[in-house]
Amino acid sequence: MTDKRICVGAIGGSYGVRGELRIKSFCSIPEDIESYSPLATEDGSQMFHLALVRPIKNGFVARVVEVSTKEEADALKGTQLFATRDQLPALHDDEYYHTDLIGLEVVDTGGTLLGQIKTVLDHGAGDLLEVQRPGSSETVLLPFTMGAVPTVDLAAGRIVADPPIGLF
After folding, report:
1. SS3 63
2. I want to staple 68 with a disulfide (CB 3.0 to 4.6 A). Which of 18, 19, 28, 82 is the partner?
3. According to DSSP H, which parts of the chain are helical?
4. Are 2 and 63 in contact (CB under 8 A)?
């Protein structure tokens, strides 16, 4: 799991005419994306040595050694930027990378399977776990709080949930 890539940002397209890029950071401290350079595409086929130039609305202007023209910058629009786990800081005991939660089984406090985590959503008021119900395309949004999710066991590949009444 140490070589697993984690998405830390995305290229929003070109900025200006000299090959600078618009970068959106997914890091909890947005500026930290620069310290994880070089970043790669998900498959590792391209590397990007990133240097932030200045903040802009919803991100940063950045220079990338590998990009020198507006056309090259435009061609990268939508490219997700990944760092390897060993480039990222260690987390506190009650913190998790979203990528580590996706795919975990969700069981209630009695051990009944509630589903599997499909994605982690953050709409500003706290994280929500999108849980796909077993054998169904139906999903339920579970608040990712200590009250609703008292146990996260990455080693066992599951979380124990105590969801609000009526949620499932």
Report:
1. strand
2. 19
3. 70-75, 98-101
4. no
